[in-house]
């Protein structure tokens, strides 16, 4: 009799736990996207991080990062960390779900996007995924790899799987006024969507001859499309790179492009530092991607922390108003799928 009672009690507790977890998941999805904190993976295209990009998509991570090269010395949009001439990636250019882990890797951005579309079709209603694209050497507009060409590539491949700037703007004049008035949609409303973030690349930033970085070039593109009544063609969101206070958009001499930045990206250690007003971003419903989450004092391992350490770090940065806490924790899927309420005490 005791065994039966104990088993029944254990079953009841398990049921309560399952219902509680399910309720938590439902509650998470009802949060506005700008009111939640997720977890990102740095350089998710590298084979040492995930054997195939489909594995990155399956991981549960809220953000995946790609490095893209555009220079005229190579073909198309290449995906690689350090090879500017060719791709070195886990993308396979799949045509159907059966090819996601069977075709040759080392495909460029078009191939990564094809993998995303095939995976998206096989996983309807998937979590919203922020795709962070570092344009290593910037746009090459004269070589046919400028902002409009990127929009066309994203649109032709992903179609309605994209969440676009025009959808966020709605009836407002620009992105800034839209998010300050309404915030971002609920996570449930963004189910099945990819949101593309663009940042300047390390090579671009180090090039003294490059005076038009990705962030400014794409924000100008958005402003001009809106003025022409064609904002619906835009497919990505430019990010202000580098944590700074109070409003880092003042670095842009052309004030007319400032309202086209509602995504910010920089060091978690800076955003989380004592005295830094990270709540300023949250109050205005701006997204903040906090990189190198592991490096915030006290530092933890950047690739293999314990699950408890990683969860505690995500909770800490959620309390510091992160939208995404990013590191290289690809081996911790239970952490990668974490969604917390942004700004709340955890």
From TrEMBL:
Keyword field: Hydrolase, Signal
Residues making up the signal peptide according to the UniProt record: 1-27
EC category: hydrolase
GO molecular function term, any single one: phosphatidylinositol-4,5-bisphosphate phospholipase C activity
Keyword Zinc: no
Keyword Hydrolase applies: yes
Transmembrane segments: none
Listed EC numbers: 3.1.4.11
Protein name, per record: Ca2+-dependent phosphoinositide-specific phospholipase C
Organism: Streptomyces niveus
């Amino acid at each position: 009799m005791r065994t039966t009672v104990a088993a029944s009690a254990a079953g009841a507790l398990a049921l309560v736990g399952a219902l509680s977890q399910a309720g938590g998941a439902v509650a998470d999805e009802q949060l506005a996207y700008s009111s939640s904190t997720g977890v990102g993976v740095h350089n998710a295209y590298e084979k040492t991080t995930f054997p195939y990009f489909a594995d990155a998509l399956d991981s549960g991570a809220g953000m995946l990062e790609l490095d893209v090269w555009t220079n005229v010395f190579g073909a198309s949009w290449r995906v690689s960390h350090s090879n500017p001439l060719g791709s070195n990636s886990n993308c396979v250019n799949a045509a159907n779900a059966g090819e996601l882990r069977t075709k040759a890797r080392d495909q460029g951005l078009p191939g990564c996007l094809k993998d995303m579309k095939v995976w998206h079709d096989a996983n309807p209603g998937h979590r919203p995924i922020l795709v962070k694209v570092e344009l290593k050497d910037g746009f090459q507009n004269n070589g046919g790899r400028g902002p409009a060409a990127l929009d066309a590539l994203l649109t032709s491949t992903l179609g309605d799987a994209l969440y676009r700037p025009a959808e966020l703007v709605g009836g407002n004049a620009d992105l800034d006024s839209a998010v300050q008035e309404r915030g971002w949609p609920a996570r449930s409303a963004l189910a099945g969507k990819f949101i593309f973030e663009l940042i300047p690349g390390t090579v671009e930033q180090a090039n003294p001859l490059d005076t038009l970085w990705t962030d400014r070039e794409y924000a100008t593109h958005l402003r001009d499309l809106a003025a022409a009544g064609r904002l619906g063609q835009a497919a990505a969101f430019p990010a202000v790179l580098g944590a700074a206070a109070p409003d880092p958009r003042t670095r842009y001499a052309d004030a007319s492009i400032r309202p086209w930045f509602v995504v910010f990206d920089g060091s978690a250690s800076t955003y989380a530092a004592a005295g830094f007003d990270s709540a300023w971003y949250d109050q205005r419903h701006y997204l903040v991607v906090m990189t190198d989450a592991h490096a915030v004092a006290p530092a933890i391992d950047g690739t293999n922390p314990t699950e408890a350490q990683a969860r505690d770090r995500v909770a800490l940065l959620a309390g510091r108003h992160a939208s995404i806490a990013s590191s290289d924790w690809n081996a911790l899927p239970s952490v990668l799928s974490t969604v917390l309420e942004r700004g709340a005490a955890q």
